[in-house]
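Figure 3 (text version): structure tokens given as input.
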């Protein structure tokens, strides 16, 4: 994806550089920074998408079914976030073909976004000259603008029990799986309240059936639009695990890792206003919203670059039923064009 986007952007006149994030995280590609020098007055604008997708995401075979683009059902479609990439490419292509003036346009295309924003966390934002950003990376119809997103903490836990022969002397053992299972049964999970969620993503233990397992691992996450709730619920889950371990005579080691901070922007902030005016120009209703998902906007906002997330029109994201209406994809490219046009002196209405 990084190599292909580099070639396509260079063909459109962008200068493109790739950072060393791939080497830092054990991947094969870094974040891309691309810049197209403007030919008209106006402040630089930043657009951003991510290059990765969730599994199963290799060998995608997109196809048109009625009014939708979908995969063949064996993989995700990858519209998250290829729809954003396609809209930016189409928008810039149409802009240049029409010979319209434009300000300097900057792109940040990140890697490992689906791994809790790892790629943007390594990106050097100081090279960006734009004061505002637009991240094309949310589900929902064109015209929806994300102004608030949660903080996330990931946690891992290792439960320790005591091994014993499961047939001869099971009472001498302490099952680490049983401790973990008891802890999970007592946890507040999934939807906690309107602002907070929690989930266990994996639980793992390995061994023969005739030995009481002395080790079990699990991984999970907590998110909330309110940072205090993230900390409080993560602490509550930790307490549940420690209590279960003590009751069975085992132990547990819990490691909590902050992933990204929450952010909240106002409806009258500059990027939201510009995106809303542009949506009006292409005839779609505007809706401001909060989301339960993180994006690179969490990183950009935390580093002082006000950035909103634009809905891209895709549906059933992160599943093999993922799809996007053809009309929504076309509108997304029009939205990009309208955002660029909004700041041109008198050009936006022509």
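Below: residues designed for each position.
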């Amino acid at each position: 994806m990084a190599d292909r986007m580099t070639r396509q952007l260079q063909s459109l006149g962008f200068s493109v550089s790739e950072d060393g994030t791939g080497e830092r995280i054990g991947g094969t590609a870094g974040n891309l920074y691309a810049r197209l020098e403007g030919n008209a007055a106006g402040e630089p604008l930043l657009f951003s998408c991510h290059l990765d997708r969730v599994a199963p995401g290799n060998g995608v075979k997109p196809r048109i079914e009625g009014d939708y683009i979908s995969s063949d059902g064996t993989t995700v479609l990858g519209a998250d976030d290829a729809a954003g990439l396609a809209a930016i490419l189409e928008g810039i292509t149409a802009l240049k073909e029409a010979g319209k003036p434009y300000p300097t346009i900057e792109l940040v295309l990140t890697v490992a976004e689906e791994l809790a924003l790892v790629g943007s966390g390594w990106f050097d934002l100081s090279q960006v000259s734009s004061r505002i950003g637009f991240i094309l990376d949310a589900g929902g119809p064109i015209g929806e603008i994300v102004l608030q997103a949660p903080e996330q903490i990931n946690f891992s836990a290792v439960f320790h029990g005591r091994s014993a022969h499961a047939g001869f002397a099971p009472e001498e053992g302490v099952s680490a799986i049983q401790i973990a299972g008891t802890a999970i049964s007592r946890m507040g999970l999934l939807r906690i309240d309107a602002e907070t969620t929690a989930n266990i993503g994996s639980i793992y233990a390995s061994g023969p059936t005739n030995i009481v397992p002395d080790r079990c691992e699990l991984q999970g996450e907590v998110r909330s639009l309110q940072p205090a709730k993230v900390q409080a619920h993560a602490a509550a889950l930790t307490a549940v695990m420690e209590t279960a371990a003590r009751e069975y005579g085992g132990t547990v080691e819990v490691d909590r890792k902050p992933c990204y901070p929450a952010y909240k922007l106002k409806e009258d902030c500059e990027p939201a206003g510009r995106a809303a005016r542009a949506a009006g120009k292409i005839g779609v209703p505007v809706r401001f919203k909060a989301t339960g998902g993180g994006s690179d906007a969490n990183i950009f906002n935390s580093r002082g670059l006000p950035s909103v997330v634009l809905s891209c029109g895709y549906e059933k994201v992160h599943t093999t039923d993922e799809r996007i209406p053809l009309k929504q994809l076309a509108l997304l490219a029009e939205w990009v064009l309208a955002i660029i046009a909004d700041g041109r002196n008198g050009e936006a209405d022509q």
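Confidence is low (pLDDT under 50) at residues 344-350.
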